[in-house]
Write the structure tokens for this entry.
Amino acid sequence: MATEDMTHGGAHCGAKMRRASRRLLLPEELVEIERTVDKLAMNYLRKKTDSHARPFDNPLRDVIVADRDEAEKAASMLRETWNIGFGAIKSIYQLMENKGIGVVETKLPEDVLGISTWAGGRLPLVIMTSLSKVVTTERKRFTAAHELAMLLLTIPDYVDRERVCNQFAGCFLMPRQTLISELGEKRDRIGIEEMSRLRSTYGVSVSALVHQAYDLHIITKEHYNWWYDEIISKNLKETGWGKFPYI
């Protein structure tokens, strides 16, 4: 995964693009992406202006995030501020829309998962790929949470922005207390049936769940490596491991 800065367009600024590979985009692809983002930002800006929408108030505007612990605190703070508890988020698209963050799906190059930007420099907008055959529901949910972090968090230049936003996304979708209540504080081994149930219940991929379990010291490095080497690497799309019904 990689995040790239985009040039400022006529109707947007500060755009960040999340990609599934480090392939260099062709010049014509970049031009088309810029046109798409500018058009969608202009449409969103016009829609919000016509509806006399209130200016967006970033609930994490004073929060600086430089490591995983701070990313987790920011994710927990946002859940508390938005009063959504610590259970499964039914639809992250709907949640973001309800909180004043625009979300729109459109056709993007196959390895572009999502783009975050500011329409008119003031209204947050997330543009997601519409390619459901390539990207699973769980991956779209994670990407939306990742782009949410890109919009809301203040991340110092010396910090790996991609890593911190991934950590925020994992903690936002699957909070510490929720995963521990499901798995316990320490586990020698976790089976695919249990992880599939959590994937179906919380809308979080098995890959992200394994990452979170390791980050919270629920499983060892050896078990983490086993999951990736023996299980996840052989089923990257997680086919047959349950499915969450909402994005």
Q: What stands out?
A: The longest helix spans residues 27-50. The first strand starts at residue 2 and ends at 5. DSSP finds nine helices and five strands in the chain. Strands lie at 2-5, 12-19, 102-106, 112-119, 123-129.
